[in-house]
Amino acid sequence: MNAPYDGDRGRGTGGAGSSGGPPVPPGPGGVPPVPDPYLQAAYDHDPYRAQDLSAQDPVDEALYDRAAHPPPPPGVHPQPQPLYQQPPPAPYAPDPRIWAQTPPPEPDGPSRHLPYGDASAATQYVGVDDLVGQASQDREQPDAFAHLYRDQEGPAGASAVAAEPEPAPAPAPRKSGGRASGLLKSSALMAAGTLVSRLTGFVRTLVMTAALGAALLGDSYIIAYTLPTMIYILTVGGGLNSVFVPQLVRSMKDDKDGGEAYANRLLTLVMVALGVIVALVVLAAPWLIHMMSPTIARDAAANSVAVTFARYCLPTIFFMGIHVVMGQILNARGRFGAMMWTPVLNNIVMIFTFGMFIWVYGTSAESQMGVQTIPPEGIRLLGIGTLLGLVVQALAMVPYLREAGFRFRPRFDWRGHGLGKTVRLAKWTVLFVLANQAGVIVVTQLATSAGKLSGKDGTGFLGYSNAQLIWGMPQAIITVSVMAALLPRISRAAHDDDPGAVRDDISHGLRNSAVAIVPVAFLFLALGLPMCTLLYSSAGTEAARSMGFILMAFGLGLIPYSVQYVVLRGFYAYEDTRTPFYNTVIVAAVNAAASALCYVVLPAQWAVVGMAASYGLAYAVGVGVAWRRLRNRLGGDLDGAHVVRTYARLCLAAVPASVLGGGIGFAVLMGLGEGVLGSLVALVLGGAVLLGVFVAAGKRMRIEEINGLVGMVRGRLGR
Fold it and tell me: Looking at residue 645, what DSSP letter applies?
């Protein structure tokens, strides 16, 4: 057997031995040494003493040949050697001249010599506890796309190279929240910038409405002001916003220079194209105004004012495009904040411009200024201020690009470097935007005509535009910020042919944005009237009430509008721009048809309200079409059950909340009036009740997204 044979254990060659352990050799002079306390009774509890060898392992016993390997006879087994023994005493006492001498001092600093030639500055002393504690920790694998999220890491995550490193204690391990933590940080940064931008945009809209009013003069300026944005999106903006981010990400991954040459070619191409476009549209300004609003074009005074405003505003197309390209280059490098924060400068410049106009000429209610009475100096002041705001916004991106390591060098070698593929992809995006803007043009013409026919302030295109500005704020703050951080990730997953990751990211974006989008949509429906009477009371109570009804009609359309935006990002990640084009054609056709029906059927005062409701209806139809196509693209699974269940439960929680909040707001308006005080109290009380009931109902229904949001807020507050 493999077990040690103990047949003669306890019987030495000389006779009886100790039953407790190995024999002890005699000491000097035959005197037995003092027994070692560590060896006493070491073998008293021998598990093999009272056991049969054949019972130890029946399998080995069955295979063991005892005839060929008989056990040794008693007394022949070799004497076991002692395992533990005291060291022999030293013949001489220790010499204090050797062990008591003081070692020579070692030099401090980098010149200190360590064993094996180690440098003292690069040596880290690790104890046994550190080795044991860190043995089970897995080393992080290098991420090929870590540079895309470099600005999301804290100071501990950045690699700093010191010229002369000094010995320092080992830093504490950096807390890592994973991809979700980086996404939340990027989304929070962009949401904060977008929030400030939208708030300053509200102030800009307020001073614009106060300076020009909500009648024909206000409509003339707002059409000229929105015309550059429409032309920019129609020509270049659609492709830049959706197609070029995946292309920039791929060039950074595949190109040896990290995509810098591709970005320089793209920026040069866009600058040349925008310069040509600006020259053409400035000459065609009268025709563009007529296309946007035949009602204004038929009025000589209004047409003159609108064309003059347009020729000041149209050059902003160039700076608008430069700003977007620079922002997309930064986004591809993981710098998401600049594009969201720089529009604040534009709003500040415009607020200052319109503030000067009000300081010189007074508000619209005081001056009763119209298209016939506005002075040329006032038009020039507003036009130059509008152009200057976009110039400042674009130039403010240059320091961010330098900080990111990007240096612009014009490059005209456009052929053979992938720009042709990008242009082909952008072709469908341009058609997509063209279809969308065709619907906008129809609505603009109908809204302007309805406002003039009704004879009431706030029922025209300016009221529609102001209400839509409020309505689109949650979309820009929440959904756009979340998807701007998700889009590079979705693009990488699509490039790696991982439909599961694409599905998960889209589902994540839909469900997490819905936590805020759904209650805000019901908030607009319940409290749109006090919200607009508070914000636009400077234009008159009648105009503010009209805008409030338009905002209420927009309300619930925010939900399908947000879902549509997220779903289309999935197609763009796969470089599929044709499907979004066809989807937008459907949306634009439904919007134009429903708006025309409202213009014909409803009274002029309520026609624009119906057009606002038609906007949400069109996107509800578009969501159904886009959802089915993306689901088929991802193999028949888009996490639809989870997403639909989340939205349905959020809506169920929002219905009683909006009823209670809207009822309280209406009661306050009836009691205190629709002035500033009554609107403020109604909005605060009604909004608090609505949000409180919504959160309570959501927690009661155990909606995980609400519980996660509440937990995150409590964690931030330290509760």
Answer: H
CA-wise closest residue to 535 among 444, 479, 476, 473: 473
Cβ(611)–Cβ(446) under 8 Å?
yes
Residues 6+ apart with CB under 8 A from 229: 237, 320
Q: In this structure, how many other beta carbons lie within 10 angstroms of the beta carbon of residue 232? A: 25
Rounded Cα distance between 700 and 707, Å, is 10
Nearest partner of 327 among 256, 277, 396, 265, judged by Cα: 396
Please choose, from the candidates 386, 60, 45, 42, the residue with its C-alpha nearest in 3D space to the C-alpha of residue 208: 386
d(C-alpha 274, C-alpha 267), whole Å: 10
Sign of the dihedral defined by the CA atoms of residues 211, 214, 219, 223, in that order: positive
From residue 644, give the alpha-carbon distance in Å to each of 30, 84, 504. Answer: 95, 75, 14
DSSP 472-508: HHHIIIIIHHHHHHHHHHHHHHHHTT-HHHHHHHHHH
Whether residue 138 is predicted with pLDDT greater than 50 in this model: the reply is no
Q: Which residue type is seen at 627?
A: W
| Tokens of residue 419, six digits | 């720009």
Q: Are 544 and 463 in contact (CB under 8 A)?
A: no
Distance CA 73, CA 69 (A): 12
629-688: pLDDT as tens digits? 888 888 777 888 888 888 999 999 999 999 999 999 999 988 888 778 888 999 999 999
The pTM assigned to this predicted structure is 0.60
